[in-house]
Target: Diphosphomevalonate decarboxylase
Amino acid sequence: MAVYQATASAPVNIACIKYWGKRDTKLILPTNSSLSVTLDQDHLRSTTTSRADPSFTKDRLWLNGTEDEIKAGGRLATCISEMKRMRKEYEDQNPNEPKLSDFYVHICSRNNFPTAAGLASSASGFAALVSSLAALYKLPASPSKLSLIARQGSGSACRSLFGGFVAWEQGTSPDGSDSFAVEVAPREHWPDIHALICVVSDDKKGTSSTSGMQRTVETSALLQHRIKHVVPERMRAISEAIKARDFDAFARITMQDSNQFHAVALDTEPPIFYMNDVSRAIIALVVEYNRVSVEAGGKLKAAYTYDAGPNAVIYAPKENLREIVEMIVKYFPQADPFKDPFGLFGAAGVTEGGVIPGFNTAVAKQFEVGAVKNLIHTRVGDGPRVLGAEEALLGAEGFPKSIS
Amino acid sequence: MAVYQATASAPVNIACIKYWGKRDTKLILPTNSSLSVTLDQDHLRSTTTSRADPSFTKDRLWLNGTEDEIKAGGRLATCISEMKRMRKEYEDQNPNEPKLSDFYVHICSRNNFPTAAGLASSASGFAALVSSLAALYKLPASPSKLSLIARQGSGSACRSLFGGFVAWEQGTSPDGSDSFAVEVAPREHWPDIHALICVVSDDKKGTSSTSGMQRTVETSALLQHRIKHVVPERMRAISEAIKARDFDAFARITMQDSNQFHAVALDTEPPIFYMNDVSRAIIALVVEYNRVSVEAGGKLKAAYTYDAGPNAVIYAPKENLREIVEMIVKYFPQADPFKDPFGLFGAAGVTEGGVIPGFNTAVAKQFEVGAVKNLIHTRVGDGPRVLGAEEALLGAEGFPKSIS
Model:
């Protein structure tokens, strides 16, 4: 008997122009366009196996070893039913294809990074879900078309349907048909963009993005100005910077927009804070690192950006990563040795860290071990990949191979 | 020989609608109007003695026991020369008065609160300076007229020329002649407004207000929107709330405006942070304290506000202060016993603190002793006072009585 199964992986993306605010909460239509860098799946990815089988009695999904309820009308159910609808269209046009759209599916998904890291995994997760179902269903859909479905799972998931540099065009249509992701430039255009993720310890769970952004929409006097007047110009300018591989402009806009996103969160009632004192200290270090360069007649060498949490992502040309890791390690001593995937430090590894000449070390204090729990060095990456059967997460019977 | 000497004290004020941004940095003309509550001089004040004498060889000023240089063209020199100019006008109209405007002055000033507290003392300081010179020179000038001079020493000093609730009208004239303070309501109109100042420990010196606000003017995309569209409406609404003694509206606007001031600081390049994790925790406590009241059908019971530093000022009707002190002490254990100027706690004093029923204690963690260094309980207060000779800070020879 035929087995209908496919496995795909999808990357994480970190926005440079932030998505914050929905104009339609059910369809997940944003109040402004956004733009992100896709990170390398070799370091951070979600992998998903989907299988359709007439023996299944309902749609089921396991995430990181635990079964998730697929609530009727919820985001998971919406994505699955939308993919089945597209399969049905495909079957209607190709009558010889098996009627998979009539079968229930089993879906198994895993992230290769700890959930505890506080890295938004819904983007890579929904992108992998949609990609695996698209492979299972043999859909001829483009990434932009698939991004329409992923968007309804988690807004920023739509941007994980592409590698490289990706815009999510907000669109204007009430049905969301023009609110999808497009590639601004592939990773090959500017492979030199590396990223250092500083996983910051947090005492408490902050506000969820979903509820937080709607409170901002309802109460911030500044958000509307951002939406109408600031973001459109920044989208244009950062796209140009990417096309021109102009890191200085890219970095400036990225930092401005991270700051402004957190500013409108603060302008919310009651205010929303995602950054903590550690986040602020990392900003101070990057600002000082750039200041030294600019005062010597150079350009910006690094850009910080923060999503809805305290973790910093530092973007920089590869050649600066060694200095940046040294700087972060000096102020945030690490419990575990720095995993050095690009071999910046040789066999000895990074030890106590240090700063570049001319750096004012008083811009931040040295924190205790654990303030930054972990450092992940990665780079701009590719889009979703369809994987071979050997990487499937479902066993012969269509259930998770191992539950951990 | 006649002694020409006068002593005055002036209060601190804490803004509810924040002043942030100058349209003229020399004349200190603001980009938006602001509004503050004057705090009680019985708890926080600057006292200044000024003396004019033909034997003096130059203008001199001692602040908290240390001589300050009066730089030519600087803010101190501007205030002193403006006051001399007004004295000269008075002498021209009253030819029998001594020609004090020809004499040099000695000025001695003290704050009754520690500079290390991080409370802006320039407002009370310049207000006391101007008030003592006005008394020395017997000027018939109104507080609004004197506020034009104090403003040129430190913008927010102009608001310390009145007690109670004070607006600083930004004005439109390029010469600053219509940028002065006016009384919205005297303390007697709403004496029930109390304040708890939480002096928050800070690891490092932040950005000075003077340089910070101009960076915001130059780089924040959101500040202009705030200036043009948000502040005018808030000034109107909070003035109404004060006139109506509507604490709920007063509190809401005060918290919104504190948040928005810090939001535009964050929207600055590079970003400016004044609040730290302790400040954020105090906000979370006040938000939760209000939530419990509102969910029970009540109104807002407290309002936080933060100036350009991490210290919180909590405004509340007097009846809530006991609960508020208990709440703060629970999360921020104090090294020293709470000074209880209004006798909220009786002989036993406040011990471990506590929260009101229904309060979600998980909104903040308990901090270590010292995170909030000190609590100052005060209330709305009166304007500058002319003091008797027994309170003079200058001795018989016109020099500071004691240098500590």
